[in-house]
Structure formats: structure tokens, C-alpha cells
Automatic annotation (TrEMBL):
This is 4-hydroxyphenylpyruvate dioxygenase. InterPro entries: 4OHPhenylPyrv_dOase, 4OHPhenylPyrv_dOase_C, 4OHPhenylPyrv_dOase_N, Glyas_Bleomycin-R_OHBP_Dase, Glyas_Fos-R_dOase_dom, VOC_core. SUPFAM superfamilies: Glyoxalase/Bleomycin resistance protein/Dihydroxybiphenyl dioxygenase. Belongs to the 4HPPD family. The gene is hppD. One of its GO terms (biological process) is L-tyrosine catabolic process. Fe cation binds at residues 214, 297, 378. It comes from Nocardioides marmorisolisilvae.
């Protein structure tokens, strides 16, 4: 088999090239780094697709186009022989979402949706060598859900397998170059190219986000280290610098979090578990309504968070509120230093700031996307910082408490 990957991973993927992204942009957007792929037990190139199961894929696909500016690129459904479900493939920049919903009432997707509601069923990863990954996964005792298999249509072949991760979530592993030939279809065999008649509003940015930065997994109390170990041992992921200590997390945000990343840092997984606090943890609420562990939020990367937030608000997307006290707080202003826009512009939009030794980041969180208080999105604009905004847990809660104190209620 001819391998097209080199030892250094500082090359763009086919999807990134298609999205006209440059290496510099990706280094800034998602913190891409160089690494030696040959020494990796489980080389991962990057995200392949994020697969959602939803109650109504037809309307959810419309939502991601009309509200999030994504582009419909492929489809599978009864019209082309898939009588079980409909699946819409949407793109923004280098990232692909696949939205699936049951057509046949007996589809396993209907059961999945009844248990979990709208959510992420599959974090599919592109790998240069599926068989090498599955061999490694099996060697260290991971659950192989689907053995490596070739799928072929008129556009070529892909080789696919799947392994289990937390809850009922899986990682499908997709090898898009087989025997030196890249697959040329719109997504995977079984899908046809499809576009929509929707017209982008003239004042809306070409893309509201360019890439995917990280996906957070919520796991049950006491299981975070087990899943950190899973990503270390099975997939060769490395621990990232940000580890939230008990001191910060338990008092303010009622969660514990550790972050793992693949060699080139395209794929980053913060893993949360609930912490015992004065109030019920937001992680406990997720676990109750999702019926177990699952993907909590997807952070999409933008190079202009102000324009992105403006477009999203115009399109009706709702964000979490940030109290004015957060911006007026002298401690916050001292901590964040100079950022690229006046703080008033951030305050107007509720955008948060965090800074570490490498730089700063701007971020904002949406309200839950579906009916259950489970999965939501984050927008992130990085300026050197490789963190995830841990300073904001503390700053937000402290700002609120100072206000409470002024009112004599603390
Ligand atoms: Fe995040």
C-alpha cells in the first residue's frame, strides 16, 4: 500500500485545501502543531465528520444552513435506496457535519433518539491507516465495533472501521486514500452530491466558522481519568497543558476537566466529570438528560468572532448572557490586558476573554441546541492561547458573586 502521509503532519488535509485554508490560518485557528507521525501508535490526520442523530434531520439540516451558514453537499435517503434514514452532509470551512434522522420507525436511530435526544453519535476521524489503528485498539483492549472494511462506488474506495468511546458514542475511522488513490465522492459511498436552493444573505460572512477546534465529552463522576487513559493508551493522544485543579473547579463551576489531543492538535478532547458543589453540577444535568456520557459541546473556530456572533444573532441563534460585572471588573481588565477590539465591543455581544502565557482567546457559548439541556456550541477565536477558557469559569462566577455581595445576598 502506498502511503501518502509524510513524517511531519504540517500539511493540509484535502478538506482544508478545498476550504482554501492556509497553514498559518490553521495554526492560528486551531493551534495546529508539527509532530512525528511515524512514532504514533494510532496516527490521526484530523476530524472526518461529526455525525448527529436528531428527531427531524430534514429541518435540522435547514437550521444549520439558515442559522449557521453551512452548505449542503451530500445526501443519503429513500430516494437513493436508503429506506432506514435520511442523512444530510453539511460543510463549513474544513469541517463536515452529518445530520441523520430515522425514516423507518423501526430504525435503530429512532431508539437512539428516544434515549438521548438530539446529539452526537459519532466523532469520525480521518486516519492514514485504518488497519494499524484497529490493531493498536485491539491490542490494548478497546472495543472494536466495526472491523476494517472497504466500501466502493463509482468515485473510488474508502476503508472504514469503528471503535467505541464514552457512552453510546463511537469513533468511526475513515481512510480516504486506499492503495494510493484518494476517494473522490461527495462524502462516502452511498451518498449522492446535493446542494440547496437557499441563498446566503448579502451581509452575511461567506463562512460563519472555518474549522472545528474541540469537542468536549461529559463522563460520569469518577470516570474522567479512565477516559483520559483511554485516549492516551488506545489512541496515543497527549495530555494538554490545561488541567483544571480541584481548587478552581469545585468551588465555581462544579466540574473537573482534563484535555487530550492527537499528535498534530487538530483533534482536541476536553473530558469533564461532575464535581460535588453547593449546587447541582451542569455536568450532572447533562448526564441525566442525555442518559449517560456523551458529547457536550462543539467549539467551532472563527477568525472574526464579532462578525460571526452578529450573523448568528441575526439568524436567531441564542447565546448565554454574560453579566456586565464581568466586563467592569478591574481584576478581569488587568488579567486580560490588550485584545484586538475594545472591551465594549465584546461586552455588547457577551463575548468572553481568557489569557495565558501563550496569548489570549475570545469565546462565547450558545444555549442548548435541542429540546434537552445537553449539546451546545462554542465559538472560539484564538490569538496564540492554546487553552480552553478556564479563567472564565472563575472570572464569571466571581463577578456574579461580587454583585451578589453588593446586594447583601452572599
Ligand atoms: Fe470549549
Amino acid at each position: 500500500m502506498v502511503s501518502t502521509s509524510s513524517t511531519t503532519a504540517m500539511t493540509l488535509t484535502a478538506d482544508e485545501l478545498k476550504a482554501d485554508l492556509t497553514l498559518e490560518q490553521l495554526q492560528q485557528l486551531v493551534g495546529l502543531v508539527e509532530y512525528d507521525e511515524d512514532g504514533d501508535v494510532f496516527p490521526v490526520t484530523g476530524w472526518d465528520a461529526i455525525v448527529f442523530v436528531v428527531g427531524n434531520a430534514t429541518q435540522t439540516a435547514h437550521y444549520y444552513q439558515s442559522a449557521w451558514g453551512m452548505e449542503l453537499v451530500a445526501y443519503s435517503g429513500p430516494e437513493n435506496g436508503n429506506r432506514d434514514h435520511k442523512a444530510f452532509v453539511l460543510r463549513s470551512g474544513s469541517i463536515r457535519f452529518v445530520v441523520q434522522g430515522a425514516v423507518d420507525p423501526d430504525s435503530t436511530l429512532a431508539d437512539h433518539h428516544r434515549r438521548h435526544g438530539d446529539g452526537v453519535v459519532d466523532i469520525a476521524l480521518e486516519v492514514p491507516d485504518v488497519d494499524r489503528c484497529v490493531e493498536q485498539a485491539r491490542k490494548v483492549g478497546a472495543t472494536v465495533l466495526v472491523e476494517p472494511e472497504i466500501h466502493t462506488d463509482e468515485f473510488g474506495s474508502v476503508r472504514i472501521a469503528a471503535i467505541a468511546t464514552y457512552g453510546e458514542t463511537r469513533h468511526t475511522l475513515v481512510q480516504r486514500v486506499v492503495d494510493g488513490v484518494p476517494y473522490a465522492g461527495p462524502y462516502l459511498p452511498g451518498y449522492v452530491a446535493k446542494s440547496s436552493t437557499r441563498v446566503r444573505p448579502v451581509n452575511q460572512p461567506k463562512r460563519i466558522f472555518q474549522a472545528l477546534d474541540h469537542i468536549v465529552g461529559n463522563v460520569e463522576l469518577g470516570h474522567m481519568d479512565e477516559w483520559v487513559d483511554f485516549y492516551n493508551r488506545v489512541m496515543g493522544f497527549v495530555n494538554m497543558a490545561e488541567f483544571i485543579g480541584d481548587d478552581i473547579a469545585t468551588d465555581y463551576s462544579a466540574l473537573m476537566s482534563k484535555v487530550v489531543a492527537n499528535g498534530n492538535h487538530r483533534v482536541k478532547f476536553p473530558l469533564n466529570e461532575p464535581a460535588i458543589a453547593k449546587k447541582k453540577s451542569q455536568i450532572d444535568e447533562y448526564l441525566e438528560f442525555y442518559r449517560g456520557a456523551g458529547a457536550q459541546h462543539l467549539a467551532v473556530a472563527t477568525n472574526d468572532i464579532l462578525a460571526s456572533v452578529d450573523a448568528l444573532r441575526d439568524n436567531g441563534v441564542e447565546f448565554l448572557d454574560t453579566p456586565d460585572s464581568y466586563y467592569e471588573d478591574p481584576e478581569l481588565r488587568a488579567r486580560i490586558g490588550n485584545v484586538r477590539v475594545p472591551i465594549e465591543e465584546l461586552q455588547k455581544r457577551g463575548i468572553l476573554v481568557d489569557r495565558d502565557e501563550d496569548g489570549y482567546l475570545l469565546q462565547i457559548f450558545t444555549k442548548p441546541l435541542g429540546d434537552r439541556p445537553t449539546v451546545f456550541f462554542e465559538l472560539i477565536e484564538r490569538h496564540g492561547s492554546l487553552g480552553f477558557g478556564k479563567g472564565n469559569f472563575k472570572a464569571l462566577f466571581e463577578a456574579i458573586e461580587r454583585e451578589q455581595d453588593k446586594r447583601g445576598n452572599l
